[in-house]
Amino acid sequence: SGLITIDPGFKNTGSTKSAITFLDGEKGILRYRGYNIEDLAENSNFLEVSYLLINGELPTTDQYNDFSDRITKHTLVHEDIKKILDGFPSVAHPMGVLSSLICSLTAFYPNSLDPNNTDEEIQLSMVRLLAKMPTFAAWAYKNKMGHPVNYPDNSLDYCGNFMKMMFSLPSEKYEIDPVISKALDKLLILHADHEQNCSTSTVRIVGSSQASIYASISAGINALWGPLHGGANQSVIEMLEAIKADGGDSKKYLEKAKDKNDPFRLMGFGHRVYKNFDPRAKIIKKAADDVLEKLGINDPVLDIAKELESAALSDQYFVDRKLYPNVDFYSGIIYRALGIPTDMFTVMFALGRLPGWIAQWKEMRENNEPIGRPRQVYVGETERDFVAIDKR
Ligand code: CMC
């Protein structure tokens, strides 16, 4: 084992070669398949970006229409899924519900368990995932509220359908505000992939054992849930609200974050790879301003966020450690403005990250990557004799 180097958190270990996402943490650059995130957020839409991530190229009009039609046609889920949903108490966190429902697809489509699935069958699984995840996400929310679920409306686009399932009653006519639809679409694009992060590595490693794509994506959702990863967007708003309730003194919390005897961290700050501004945070900060202005919302939490950001950026502790706001710092403010409840924020992240997980799973499979199996350096007891229970 002298040959084994341990690298806790894989801070300096590459697990794969990948042609999907390019990230330069020093310069703050993020590109999907060579296209800058700024260009995609401004000019593309979420389904087009999903196609790009999964297939490697932007679609032609025909390819786009075909892809989006297929997704629209698979939004409905098996009626028995409602029974699974009914089994969850209303206090269930929607992330746990979402990962369970995604994993239940292994039961409804058992041929996904066959590692020798044809490319066509795999394409279908990918379409199903993209189509059904918004239905599951909205249903997780409805379950929590104790409301009847809404069926998908295939006359609407991806975001419109999701918002309708979330926010209308089954009998109601629902019209999505284009400002909301555009803002949501942009957020999904910004979250769509981020190379070998914790959840994506989880998807690839579970997939490397030839588990079903549904099981692999379900595992990714669980990895995303934690507050150091996607769960940070929920923690950021909870932190900002706590600061507000405590009199709005952001400096006090900055000091807490710097205190090594205090477990408190400034949520939404810092990143394993970005040692410069997270380019997604820049776009989201501007989008938050735009959305609040267009919807005529004045959110005091946004002011606290800005105050905290500027205080941290000029503080030596944060400067020395190159800690900048990350994607999660401002996204929650937009979700709030759109009426999305706090414990659904990480679900929104999962909806956005889904095409990235799919693309990474597909790449892992096409590369014929070996099973993921890190090594260790054993530091426990050396050999010893068994002692009978009455002699211990
Ligand atoms: N507040 C205060 N100090 C921090 C923070 C923070 N948010 N982040 C890092 N540090 C300090 C840390 O204490 C350490 O200090 P020292 O060198 O004195 O021991 C130094 O900065 C390096 O931090 P690290 O924990 O070794 O860095 P990491 O790469 O292991 O962790 C991170 C990255 C994102 C988990 C961490 O920055 C963090 O916990 N941030 C808050 C949670 C968060 O916003 N997560 C979302 C990440 S972006 C989106 C996503 O992945 O989903």
TrEMBL record:
<feature type="active site">
    <location>
        <position position="328"/>
    </location>
</feature>
<dbReference type="InterPro" id="IPR019810">
    <property type="entry name" value="Citrate_synthase_AS"/>
</dbReference>
<dbReference type="InterPro" id="IPR016143">
    <property type="entry name" value="Citrate_synth-like_sm_a-sub"/>
</dbReference>
<keyword id="KW-0816">Tricarboxylic acid cycle</keyword>
<comment type="similarity">
    <text>Belongs to the citrate synthase family.</text>
</comment>
<dbReference type="Pfam" id="PF00285">
    <property type="entry name" value="Citrate_synt"/>
</dbReference>
<comment type="pathway">
    <text>Carbohydrate metabolism; tricarboxylic acid cycle; isocitrate from oxaloacetate: step 1/2.</text>
</comment>
<dbReference type="InterPro" id="IPR002020">
    <property type="entry name" value="Citrate_synthase"/>
</dbReference>
<dbReference type="InterPro" id="IPR036969">
    <property type="entry name" value="Citrate_synthase_sf"/>
</dbReference>
<dbReference type="GO" id="GO:0006099">
    <property type="term" value="P:tricarboxylic acid cycle"/>
</dbReference>
<dbReference type="InterPro" id="IPR016142">
    <property type="entry name" value="Citrate_synth-like_lrg_a-sub"/>
</dbReference>
<keyword id="KW-0808">Transferase</keyword>
<dbReference type="InterPro" id="IPR010953">
    <property type="entry name" value="Citrate_synthase_typ-I"/>
</dbReference>
<dbReference type="GO" id="GO:0005737">
    <property type="term" value="C:cytoplasm"/>
</dbReference>
<feature type="active site">
    <location>
        <position position="271"/>
    </location>
</feature>
<protein>
    <recommendedName>
        <fullName>Citrate synthase</fullName>
    </recommendedName>
</protein>
<dbReference type="GO" id="GO:0036440">
    <property type="term" value="F:citrate synthase activity"/>
</dbReference>
<dbReference type="InterPro" id="IPR024176">
    <property type="entry name" value="Citrate_synthase_bac-typ"/>
</dbReference>
